[in-house]
Amino acid sequence: MPKVKVPRKSTAIDMTAMCDVAFLLLTFFILTTKFRPQEVVQIDIPSSTAQIPIPDRDIMMFQISPEGKVFFGLDDQNTRLKLLSRLEEGYGLKFTDDQKDAFRLAELWGMDIRELPGYLSLDANGRANYQHPGLRIDTTGGEHQLEDLILWSRQENNNLRIAIKADKTTEYKAFDAVIEALQNRKVNRFNLITSARSAQE
Amino acid sequence: MAEMNIPESGAKKGKKKVRSKKASTRVDLTAMVDLGFLLITFFMLATTFNKPKTMEVVKPPKDDKVEEKDIPAIKMSKTVTLLLGNNDKVYWYVSPDEITEETAFVLDSTDYGPSGLRKVIQRRVEEVHEQWTDTTNLFVMIKPLPSSRYKNIVDVLDEMTINDVKTYAILKPNDPVDSLVCVKVGQPRK
Fold it and tell me: How far apart are CA A102 and CA A124, in angstroms?
């Protein structure tokens, strides 16, 4: 009987298709996603059945940490700069160009407005590790810092929409303080940021 | 297609003609695939995929000029009051229209799950339809106590959407009954 020779096959596989798939997925991810912003505070948002997606631009964001600290953020860098010059005026502060540039890049911050120059003179690493004490909500002394921020930002950019992102466990008290300030500045419409879920849960 | 281009040695020893070698047009794509998947991994980890949803809240404007008599009065029997307390509890009651000798006042507590608050609201919607007309809307008064959690208010507002309750308001617990409830359940009102 003749020996049956098993033909040797090459172990090399055709990679073209795999390569196509990989780059297709890559393109998909690049186009549909958005870079995760640096998190100043860890916030675990509650879920709801709301279906309205958050608008892409012109957002004024308030974030409230579980301890009730309030943070403030504008998405547009130009508005941030305009707001800073209003703060200079209103609070008698003076910022250097470096500090202005640092503020332009500040996604989210939370401290007494008078402490801003100190924070902004830190280097990038120092700012990233800075422990924000939260915005000043207390209005004793007649200074309404939260309301000033709301009013001036809105005067600089009229299309701003207000979004509130709070942790599941944030006490209502802190949330109420923000709403109170918004309402005092005639803002009666705002968005609460939630994650999606179905009605059965 | 993507084989390595290993020169076959020994097979054509006898030939002496020098021929220009035909280079294969096939390229080894393994490295490129590696790179592709590496980038995919990077993008998956460094970016946010789905945008969070938002819940729109509209509050009535604060206007000092509106006098009390201009505010439309609602019969209490068309309402239900929800007091959001701590530890994920919600206290609910229906204020009587008029206090007479037969007035019964029920205070109950429930949770935020589908079998808790949702049932209460659905039952109350039906009760209002029975007592009044089928087109009468239930008016829900939501009164969060300071010790309640943010999640609670979101849950309640969500229940309003789920049960299609169009008329509701977020109020401060200013009613005398609210004070009584707060004392009863041992929670601060302010």
Answer: 8
φ, ψ dihedrals at B85, nearest 5°: -105, -170
Cα–Cα separations (whole angstroms), residue B149 to A140, A170, B111, B112, B153: 26, 5, 13, 12, 7
The tens digit of pLDDT for each residue in B95-128 reads: 877 777 777 777 888 888 888 888 888 888 888 8
Q: Does B150 touch chain A (CB under 8 A)?
A: yes
For chain A, the average pLDDT equals 84
Q: Which one of A192, A193, A195, A201 would you mutate to disrupt binding with B, by most B Cβ within 10 Å of its Cβ?
A: A192
Annotated domain spans of chain B = 75-185
CATH architecture of B75-185: 2-Layer Sandwich (3.30)
Q: Look at A196 and B53 and tell me if their CB atoms are within 8 Å.
A: yes
Q: Which of A14-28, A135-149, B55-69, B120-134 has the lowest mean pLDDT?
A: B55-69
